[in-house]
Structure formats: C-alpha cells, structure tokens
Amino acid sequence: MASLDRSLIAGLSVFEGIAAADLDRIIGQARSIRVARDQRVFEQEQEAHSFFLLLDGHVRVVKSTPDGHEVTVRYISPGELLGIASALGRTTYPANAIAAADCVVLAWPSQLWLTFSASFPSFSANTYKAVGSRLQDAHSRVVEMSTEQVEQRVAHALLKLIKQSGKKTEEGILIDFPISRQDVAEMTGTTLHTASRLLSAWEDQGLVKGGRQKIVVVEPHRLLVIAEGRTSKS
Amino acid sequence: MASLDRSLIAGLSVFEGIAAADLDRIIGQARSIRVARDQRVFEQEQEAHSFFLLLDGHVRVVKSTPDGHEVTVRYISPGELLGIASALGRTTYPANAIAAADCVVLAWPSQLWLTFSASFPSFSANTYKAVGSRLQDAHSRVVEMSTEQVEQRVAHALLKLIKQSGKKTEEGILIDFPISRQDVAEMTGTTLHTASRLLSAWEDQGLVKGGRQKIVVVEPHRLLVIAEGRTSKS
DNA sequence: CGGCAGGTTGACGTGACTCAACATTAGTGG
DNA sequence: CCACTAATGTTGAGTCACGTCAACCTGCCG
After folding, report:
1. What pLDDT does residue A66 have?
2. CATH of segment(s) B7-145
3. Is residue A4's pLDDT more than 90?
C-alpha cells in the first residue's frame, strides 16, 4: 500500500490545530480503503472494530428495521467521520453505511479513539461538537416529520442535499452523486411513488430537472417556498 | 438558601466515580431552583447561561416551530442533565423545557461545563455517553416516524413513558406525572383527537385506564403487541 | 355554581399509500 | 452491434388512515 500523507487530513476540521508530527502519527495508523459504489463501509449490528473518515465519495447511512423498511439517517460528505458509534459507548454499529458513489475512506481501529481523544483535546472537542450537531439534525428531522407534509419534507431534503453536495452547472445545482427516487423516499419517510410524482410535478413547473439517478435543482428559491409551506396551493 | 448537600448528587451516574471533596466543590457552585408545574426551566432561543440537573419532578422538552406547532423531544426524569446545549457548542437553548410537574433543579453557570469536564474525566465521559444515547433515541424516533403508523407510535410512546416513569399501582402501571392527550399527541406527531380516540379504544379493550391528565397501563404486553405492529387488525 | 381546560365523539375530506401496469434506460452477453 | 434483462422511473385508479371541523361532555377550581 502506498504510504499515506498527512496532507490528506491536514485541512479537515476534525484534525484542526494538531501539529504536523502528530498528524503523521495519526495517519500512520490508518488504513486506506476503497469502497465501490453500493458496497458497505460497515454493517448494522456488526462489531464496531473501526471508525472511519471519508476522504472521497459519498456515503449513505441507513437503518434497517426488522420488517424490511430502510430509513436513511444521513449522507456523509468528504472530510466527515463515520462509524463513530464506538465513541458513543456502543460496541456495534447502529446502521449500515453504503457507498453512494465510489469512495475512499481511512479506517482506524476503534481502540485508537480513546488514544486520540486523550492525546488531542481539539480532536475530542471537534468530534463531540460534530456529535452535538448531529443530535440537532436528528431533532429537527423529528420536528419535520411531525409537522410537515411529504411535499415539504422532500423539498427540505433536496435543499439539504444541494447545500451539502451541490455542484453548480449551467442547468442549475446538481446533486453530486447518483441518487434515485427510492433514495429520496427513504430520506423523507415516504414511498418511491410519491417521491417520483413530486419530482415529476416539479419538473413540469421547471423547478428541478431529473434524470436517472440524477437531480438538478433549477430554482432553489421556489423550492424553499415549498419547503416552508408557504405555497399558494393553486 | 439552605446549603446543599453532596448526598443530593452522590448516587447519580453523571457524577459517578468523583471524590467526595470534589462533589462538595461541584455542588457548592450550584443554585437550587424550584420550578412550579407549567413553568419553564429555560426557553428556546434564549441565551444558554446555565446547565441543569433535575433533582425531582419531570420536565418536558418541547420544540416550537415558527408556525405554532409544538413537538415534544423528550421527557427528563430525576437524575438527568438538561440544558446541556452549551456543552455541544451552542450558545442558545434549542428547545423549551417545561415542568410537567413541580420540580427541583440544580443550575450551574454554563462556563463551569468546561471546568467540570476538564477536571473530572468521568463527568465528561458520562455526559458524552448520555449525549450519544440521546442521539440514538432521536434516530430511532426518526425511524419510527418514517415507518410506523400513529397507533404504533402512541403505543411505543406509552411504553417508553412507563419504562422511564412508571409506578406500579394496583390498577396497573401509572405514568407518574400529569400528562394530557395533547401531550401524547405532541410526543407522537399526531393530533389531540387521534390520540384521544386511540386511548378511548384501548380503554374499551381494557388495555389502559385513562383519567384527566392521567394514564395507567393495565396490560403492557398487549400494548407491546400493538407497538410492534403484529396486531390482528380485527 | 359558573366557567374553563381537558376530553370525547361524530361526520367528512383528503393526502399519501397501495396495487398495478407500463415506459425508459443501462448494462450484459451472444 | 443488437437483443435481452434488470433496474429505475412514471403514472393511473382505488382506498384508507388520519387530520379537520364541529359539537358536546365532564370534572375541577375559584
């Protein structure tokens, strides 16, 4: 394996304020792994042997219920940690992590978590802040699910996606990884069918442009109007 | 103000493994506050000047949306921390905390959070573990909202409540603080009406016993059957 | 004893799920 | 390079769980 360079992780907020020599030590203990699209980084209920950092690609974190439903908890972008369950006192992963596109991840053995957070206060501070903001996210998700209709939730989901992984193109803002209607449905707690209908309707109105596993938001502002529920409901 | 005794907090998991002298120092910096029923411990958007420990009573944490909806995020039982938003890098409280019954809380100025977690590793470890499990809770909440129908969600909510604050009586397991149908609705993302109908139906079947701001679960097992969605749907 | 918060219950409408058929595109092997 | 197949996506029709609207009851507190 080609030896890893600290430049891979130097700019990231998780490792902010850590000396170059320490970064070398940190990355020296990492394994680099390629994960092909639709392959899993880790699996629900599996022993949490490692925690990960996404270097490139996009990962979908999905919870599977006993009765076969899949609920997407979040999407991970490059630079974010994942599989940090071990940090929260779990010994097993709480969800599946599936590569939404081909990915490169770094993996460290779980027991290094303690070492890192003891040795590098900024590491622990940063990661706990990250956990905190995920808690916030989860709570707003609950609020959304409780108070908004499907249309608004889907609109919100698209807005979140373009904010997180949007790429400007001449057509509009493209969600920068393959995403199906089914995926949208699993993010918003609805069905493939309803999601498809909404996207189609929006496409007719020129709000978005669809394609196979592809969504381009043409008019984010009008989408926001829908998300906020102040749509005229013609 | 009567001086506070370390015995108030000695047994709690948050302060587990901390020396008696340190406990004295910790509690020496706390203010004890009584909060009457329906009064607020803190308010959404308000400057997060303090974090709290609930000594007695029950607190409902509620998020208010701009359009007037109220969503109950969680109930706090004695011994739990609340208002720890400040610990997660927020300067303002993310929700309202309302006393569901008359309460006694301890309050510490937010800046002591850093002191405590730096001085007492077990304090920081315990609280972060708590945050972790709240994150888990929030995620399962999202999964529930996405996959289950109202009936199952309400059943789950009651089961959670009796697990957390159930008190055995001769009639069954009583939820040990005043709780209205409206409260149940806000926990489960439904309306007062639907909640009321469900409770009434269950009362007819002898599953629960209701009353004004009062719920007694008579047959937890049958409630679990409903919660799991393996009901015969007669 | 009046008033009000909390609770119940019916009638009705509808958003979104289900069931179902079909269209389109990507990928695969001959 | 084309035929075949499997994903993926679209769209219609029918149904139902739940929300909305509305009326009314009931126990509690001053």
Report:
1. 94
2. 2.60.120.10
3. no
